[in-house]
Amino acid sequence: MAQNIYDRPEFFAGYSGMRRSVHGLDGAAEWPAVRALLPDLTGKRVVDLGCGFGWFSRFAMAQGAASVFGLDISEKMIARARADTDDAAVTYEIADLEHLKLAEASYDFAHSSLALHYIEDFAGLVASMHRALLPGSHFVFTIEHPIFMAPTHPAWSTDAEGRRIWPLDRYSVEGARTTDWLAKGVVKQHRKLGTTLNTLIAAGFAIRHVEEWSPNDRELRDNPDWAEELDRPMFLLIAVQR
Ligand SMILES: C[S@@+](CC[C@H](N)C(=O)[O-])C[C@H]1O[C@@H](n2cnc3c(N)ncnc32)[C@H](O)[C@@H]1O
Asked: Closest Cα to atom 13, ligand 1: which residue?
């Protein structure tokens, strides 16, 4: 049974106050890099896995998508997505991605932002996504980078100059990792970078782009606190093609 942490009141309140929850895609540091990976969405039937508040779903419609199907396990996230979306071509459903069931060959593009590191059966999800996409379709997703997911707890220590040190802990031991972030006992599924890529290849996807995101000089000047992204990548961006 998948954990539904976003429906916990303290977690939801904390997440709702985050920059990306208040400002949407423009409030997400990695968004310009994600956007650069997207194909032309005109006329596309899009599926958004772990759609949250529906920011990407609405963006896809604004880019000319034919329809968007957004799925998320959290009732609270879906409730706000529905409240914020006024478009009959966007459908939201409360669903657990651990048991993803999509109609075969029904979508031309798949997207997921920061949701798939919660999924234990990643291979099952990827196989299901491969069946649901038409040949040639792109699948662009982000997850927490496994280097970010695998530090000891608490996540960092500090050196003599006050710089954070991010120690890796059993990087090669895959499986559930529990952290306290916004709420106690948040469970994420740690996978090595190679496992994620090989799972996609084994399912029949061609890898088009892999990015271990870090800010460019301008982004760093504008957001000095992003400097810790140079110490350890937090976001992993992957684009594959069916
Ligand atoms: C970090 S939020 C990202 C939301 C949205 N994709 C965005 O970027 O704004 C992660 C989302 O994944 C959803 N999620 C986590 N586990 C899930 C599961 N097993 N099935 C469906 N959704 C899940 C959460 O409820 C949450 O809305």
From this structure: 50
> Taking a C-beta distance cutoff of 8 angstroms, is the pair 47, 38 a contact?
no
Say what the pTM is: 0.94
Cβ 212 vs Cβ 236: under 8 Å? yes
Q: For tokens 């966007």, name the residue.
A: 90
Is-contact 132 105, C-beta < 8 A?
Answer: yes
Burial of 154 (0-12, 13-18, 19+ CB in 10 A): exposed
Whether the CB of 81 sits within 6 Å of ligand 1: no
Q: Is 2 in the pocket of ligand 1 (CB under 6 A)?
A: yes
| Cβ–ligand 1 contact at 183 (below 6 Å) | no
Is 155's pLDDT higher than 70? no
Q: How far apart are CA 20 and CA 67, in angstroms?
A: 23
Record the tokens describing residue 203, joined without a space.
Answer: 């399912």
In this predicted model, which residue has the larger pLDDT, 37 or 148?
37
Output 219-228 pairs: Cβ under 8 A, ≥24 positions apart: 219/29, 223/29, 226/29, 228/164
100 in contact with ligand 1, CB cutoff 6 A? no
5-241 belongs to CATH 3.40.50.150: yes
**CA-24 nearest atom, ligand 1:** 9
Q: What is the mean pLDDT of residues 167-176?
A: 86
- Residues forming a β-bridge with 94: 72
pLDDT in tens, 61-89: 999 999 999 999 999 999 999 999 999 99
Average pLDDT for residues 22-48, to the nearest whole number?
Answer: 96
- 29 Cα distance to chain centroid: 13
